[in-house]
Write a structure and sequence with these properties.
Shape: elongated
Order of helices and strands: HHHHHHEEEEEEEEE
Strand order of the largest sheet: 1-2-3-9-4-7
Number of helices: 6
Oligomer: single chain
Structural class: alpha+beta
Distance between the termini: 59 Å
CATH superfamily of the largest domain: Jelly Rolls
Largest sheet: 6 strands, antiparallel
CATH architecture of the largest domain: Sandwich
CATH topology of the largest domain: Jelly Rolls
Strand content: 25-35%
Amino acid sequence: MNSSKPVQRDPKTLIRLARENGDEAFAEPLDLGQRVRELRKERDWTLEQAAREAGLARSTLSKIENGQMSPTYDALKKLAMGLSITIPQLFTPPQKEQVMGRMVVTTSGEGAAQATATYEHELLADQLTQKSMLPYRARVRARSMEEFDGWVRHDGEEFLFVLTGVVRLYTEFYEPVEMRRGDSAYYDAAMGHNVISLSEEDATILWVTSLS
């Protein structure tokens, strides 16, 4: 028998092995070797790097990728752990049909304007519908908490990045924080929050709010 001849594998056997981990079944079988190679290349890893992360010999990983070896369940577990995924994900094809390829560019000053008494907002990527995030640039007009009609609260989480000037971030459960250009904060948007400018000129900030 020629030992170099590729081993004929039954994909169903591999699927049964993965099910031993207690996870959900796979939608359909696929070439494990090709899948492992794709996952490795997504991480820009060499064979040596991937083998080291998985705790496998380089030659073993090479044989798996080239269909010359049917991995044991232990090897599957090591591969999954090394790639930081679950065993079922080793057999799950990438969801290419979900890639929408949406993109929009908003040039400076061309965002949709929305002014309030305390902020002057410029909505970014306004042309895209059904977004998961709401990005906008804001000019902070307020100079004191008295200018706000209570706390601002809304669903989701929020990221704040100071573009110019100095601001003070007030939140319902934390002490006020003074923030300068380059500083950022990430917080629960359901928690009351307001921002005032401490600069002589209005400070500007970037806000990104989750919509889910």
